[in-house]
Each structure stands twice: as structure tokens, then as C-alpha cells.
Amino acid sequence: MNIHPTAIIDPSAVIHPTAVIGAYCIVGKNTVIGEDTILKSHVIVGDNTTIGKRNTIFQFASIGEIPQDLKFKGETTYLEVGDDNTIRESCTFHRGTADGGNLTKIGNHNLFMVNTHIAHDCMVGDHNVLANNVGVAGHAHIGNYVIVGGQTGVHQFCRIDDYAMIGGASLILKDVCAFTTVSGNPSTVHGLNKEGMRRKGWSKETIETLDRAYDVMFRSGKIKADVIAELSTWVADEPKVALFIESLQNSKRGLIR
């Protein structure tokens, strides 16, 4: 086990033998650090935090401290971080609250650039990139393969669905539909994330079908029920259209348009 002599580890913490705990790190109570995870130096991992395999956490990050919620009264709440994440300098991830199910959860294969903040009760999926100084407020949901540009602020309870792309210095006050590009303050939708689709090797036919689905979603003027009814008939031929339907069905704050 590679633990620097200046690190402070609570006796209740479970550290995998292949994990690396660098100089001046602090690991709190009832915390688990998984296989091949690296804490560089000066990293704080709070209580009741589980960090999976092969994560790299850079100096001055604070992972698993108490939430910045005035309703929090010291309840036992949790943070879970999956596998293969890169968490750069000065990132802050907070534990959940009783009102949010007691849990903040981070998935796998994400890149959190310098000074990213993930607040209490957020749910973040897999393969996302959050650039420098992104702030994600409490109870927000970020799906999979999402890119969030630097300096962006995400309001409480907002959803950013799969394959969306957010331009830098944007303000997200409503939900972001899957596949779309959004930017601005206030933010507006600017079309499909076609370049992202091409980079993932999606076929021309798939992209064209999603483009037509976007027109139904944002340009047809149809009401929500009619959009869902029409797009539901497309899913058998192009399953990815289902993500448009899920964005409509799951949105509580309304979609950015």
C-alpha cells in the first residue's frame, strides 16, 4: 500500500492495496478508495465517500465534504464516484442531502477539469467532459457523453441529457434536450451536435433521421403529446430517437429552445 507518511487516514477508511495516497492527503470516516486510484497530493476525501477503480484526483480537490445547503443538519449522507474518472485541481464534489435521497453520484470515464463544482444530490453519468470552472447546482442531472463548456453555470434541478453540448460561459436555467447544442446567457438551442455525432462514427442516415426528429421537436409547433406520438413511430427504425422522447417526458423545468 502506497500511502505517504504525511497523509492522514481515518482508521475506518478502507484503502485498496494498489491505491496511491499522496502527500498531505486526508481521507475521512467510512470512506473507500478503490483499486489503482491515485490521490496526487493535498487531496481531501470527506466522510462516507466511495471512490471506485482507476480514478486520478489532482491536488487541492475536495471530494465528499458536506453540502452547501442551509437545510443540512448533519445527517449521514453519501458521495459515490465510479471508475476511470479524472478529477483535476481544486474540484469540489459534495455529499447528498436528506431531501435529495442522501446521495450524490458520479459515473465512469468522466473528465472534470480545474475547479469544477458538483453540488449535493447531483447525478452525473458516464463519458462526460466538464471544462474549467463549471458549476453544477444541487439536484441537477447530467447524462452521458455530455460536454459542458468552461465557466458555465447549471441551475438547481436542471437536466442535461445524453450527447448534448453546452457552449462556454452559458447559463442553464432549463433542461437541455439530448443531442442538442446550447449556449448563451440566457441560453438558446442552436441545433444538433452533429460534429459530436460524426466523431463517434454515427452513420449519415442516423444523423439525418435525428435532424428530422429535431425539426419535429423544435420547429413543427406541435404540442408535447403530438411530438411524442409522432416520434414514437420512428423508434423501431432508429432507436436513438427514443432519447428525444425521454428528454420531453423527463423534463420538469421545460426544455431550452
UniProtKB/TrEMBL annotation:
One of its GO terms (cellular component) is membrane. One of its GO terms (biological process) is lipid A biosynthetic process. GO terms for molecular function: acyl-[acyl-carrier-protein]-UDP-N-acetylglucosamine O-acyltransferase activity. Residues 175-256 form the UDP N-acetylglucosamine O-acyltransferase C-terminal domain. Keywords: Acyltransferase, Cytoplasm, Lipid A biosynthesis, Lipid biosynthesis, Lipid metabolism, Repeat, Transferase. InterPro entries: Acetyltransf_C, Acetyltransf_C_sf, Hexapep, Hexapep_transf_CS, Lipid_A_LpxA, Trimer_LpxA-like_sf. Pfam families: Acetyltransf_11 (PF13720), Hexapep (PF00132). Gene3D superfamilies: Hexapeptide repeat proteins, Udp N-acetylglucosamine O-acyltransferase, C-terminal domain. The keyword Glycoprotein does not apply. PANTHER family: ACYL-[ACYL-CARRIER-PROTEIN]--UDP-N-ACETYLGLUCOSAMINE O-ACYLTRANSFERASE, ACYL-[ACYL-CARRIER-PROTEIN]--UDP-N-ACETYLGLUCOSAMINE O-ACYLTRANSFERASE, MITOCHONDRIAL-RELATED. This is Acyl-[acyl-carrier-protein]--UDP-N-acetylglucosamine O-acyltransferase.
